[in-house]
Write a structure and sequence with these properties.
single chain, alpha+beta, 4 helices, 2 strands, disordered N terminus
């Protein structure tokens, strides 16, 4: 789990304090195959990534100019964090590349509903 320090300012007396919040990746939902949505924020993405990927994410953030390039960095790393949130990513990727256990898209829809 990652600890994220955030600086807050008290509105009453104007004192700055540092608070540490423990962030955890989203927990799997009841069926074990889906995860809860991960907020698309720097803090949430950072907390969900492992150390090596977190460092690469931060490096990409520092290099991206404000605008579409920064949006692209956020989108790519948000997806990376979501993929990593479900255990067995490497196994799923290997099976997909090999064409095993694929599900046809129409099979996911029953009666036109998701």
């Amino acid at each position: 789990m990652a600890s994220v320090k955030s600086e807050t300012m008290s509105r009453d007396i104007g004192i700055r304090t540092m608070e540490t919040h423990v962030m955890t990746p989203p927990a799997p939902s009841g069926d074990g195959r889906r995860t809860q949505p991960l907020p698309r924020t720097i803090e949430a993405i950072s907390a969900a990534l492992g150390e090596e990927k977190r460092q690469a994410f931060h490096a990409a953030l520092w290099q991206a100019p404000l605008g579409p390039e920064l949006d692209d960095v956020m989108n790519v790393w948000w997806m990376e964090a979501m993929f990593d949130a479900v255990p067995g990513r490497e196994r799923r990727l290997t099976r997909t590349v090999a064409g095993r256990d694929l599900v046809r898209l129409p099979d996911l829809f029953v009666g036109g509903h998701r």
